[in-house]
Q: What sequence folds into this?
């Protein structure tokens, strides 16, 4: 049992922005500039799944287009009108829309903010051990090993 005192409730946008902007190595990190995450799940000490409220500035992307081997994900749009890009193509989204990404399907996805307004959305994902992530558009793979993301080239060389 932890002695850390957790809040009963809080305002989501009062949670401090994540200090580390990305786990992506240098060749890719700049592509997610304009993304701001607030880790709501961590504020409450959640360990089985994560919840972030994420803001995408105009022109920003949520992540490199990716697919998880073990982690399910769900997004819910609060503000703005992003475009969801999956293997099936492009889908415009608006507030109240949601999308889910079942693990193991290989269907890569990400959001792009092509609008003039910020996009604000919730992202929810589990924290499955031994998850791997493929990035079909980039020379990048990731593995969740002992609770830390390890980034490598597709040929296995580490970044």
A:
């Amino acid at each position: 049992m932890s002695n850390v005192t957790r809040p009963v409730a809080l305002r989501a946008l009062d949670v401090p922005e994540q200090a580390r902007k990305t786990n992506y190595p240098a060749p890719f990190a700049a592509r997610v500039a304009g993304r701001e995450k607030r880790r709501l799940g961590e504020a409450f000490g959640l360990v089985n799944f994560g919840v972030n409220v994420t803001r995408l500035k105009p022109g920003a992307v949520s992540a490199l287009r990716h697919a998880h081997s073990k982690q399910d994900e769900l997004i819910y749009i609060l503000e703005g009108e992003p475009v969801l890009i999956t293997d099936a193509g492009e889908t415009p989204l608006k507030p109240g829309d949601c999308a889910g990404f079942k693990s193991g399907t290989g269907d890569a996805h990400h959001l792009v903010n092509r609008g003039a307004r910020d996009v604000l959305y919730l992202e929810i994902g589990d924290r499955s051990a031994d998850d791997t992530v493929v990035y079909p558009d980039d020379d990048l793979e990731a593995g969740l090993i002992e609770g830390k993301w390890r980034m490598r080239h597709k040929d296995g060389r580490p970044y």
User: Anything to note?
Assistant: The longest helix spans residues 26-29. The longest strand covers residues 49-56. DSSP finds two helices and twelve strands in the chain. The radius of gyration is 16 Å.
